Amino acid sequence: MSILNKRMIIIILILLAVLFPFIVPNQYYIYIMSLSFIWIIAVYGLNLVAGFTGYLSLAHAGFFAIGAYAMGILTTKAGMGFWLAFILSPIITMAIGLLIGIFALRTKEHFFAIYTLCVGYIIYLLIDKWESLTGGVRGLIGIPPIPNIGPIELSNPVNRYYFLFIMLLLSIFIIYRIVNSLVGRTFIAIRNSEDLALSLGISTTANKLLSFVLSTFFAGLAGALYAIFIRFLGPEISSTIIMFDMLTYLIVGGIGTFAGPIIGTLLIVWTSQSLQFLEDYRMFVFGPLLTLIIIFSPNGITGFFKHLTVKRKMRKVSIPIETKKEA
């Protein structure tokens, strides 16, 4: 696919997102799409460490919850101003991620996944049991809504939709710059072969830690947005169910691909909405779907289409060569 075609697709997608509230003027659908934007930001953070660096963090939902609770506690209990709390929430999440990452990244491969799974469960227990700070099972309520920006009323669902969409675009742009920078290439080198990266003089420990910390920043940002969007928090947002939901979004869309988080999240979220009548039996649909994708397209839907594009290009190149030989 040429650069021009990619740009055209991006422009069309952005235009569709901008026009969505007018094309589908249904408040419930606008709510679901707004919530999808938050999940996409979180999944992009997970993709940064799992997809581009090759280290599967199963504590991502925990960091998402830390960002959400940081926003809630700073505004409701500490009495901090909205925008200062909003800026500090992902920074606090990133600082905690740094402390955890220093120890977590001493492990490798499946040991790292198991370690972070344990960390995620510890975060869940802290939120559930530390009632004086988090509200425990009763949850944290009274989180203030997004304040107005000048004449723009962000209490309006459509205006709030555009605010979240802008936050998503900013997040995607920053991650795109990271992935396509020298730092991003270093992450990919570690994913492809950590031993080879070490032999080239790359500090794998420092770069893995950087990738992990950056992923927690985006998890914290998504968590803060979730807190001000829902305005009620409970321990379940740090549960393993949320973690595996995020992982499903990433695997279906395409782990280690740039468009994967968008495609996977939107597809699963909207499919879930259409299958609400099945309630708890929805996993009978998602389970086989996920299994088939892992078996036949390990790189997800995005990877599948990339593979088709590469095969088409190879055919176009091989046909002229064969014609030349015949002549």
Q: What does the radius of gyration come to? A: 21 Å
**SSE order in H/E notation?**
HHHHHHEHHHHEHHHH
Helix percent band: over 70%
Helix/strand class: mainly alpha
Any low-confidence stretches, pLDDT <50, length ≥5? none
Known CATH architecture: Orthogonal Bundle
Mean pLDDT over the residues: 88
Q: Give the CATH class.
A: Mainly Alpha
Number of domains: 1
Strand content: under 5%
Oligomer: single chain
Largest sheet: 2 strands, antiparallel
Q: What is the number of helical segments per DSSP (H or I, 4+ residues)? A: 14
Query: How many beta-strand elements?
Result: 2
CATH topology group: ABC transporter involved in vitamin B12 uptake, BtuC
The strand line-up of the biggest sheet is: 1-2
Overall shape: globular
- Termini Cα gap: 30 Å
Pfam families: BPD_transp_2
Transmembrane segments: 6-23, 28-46, 52-74, 81-104, 110-127, 161-179, 209-234, 246-271, 283-305
Membrane topology: Multi-pass membrane protein
Protein name: Branched-chain amino acid ABC transporter permease
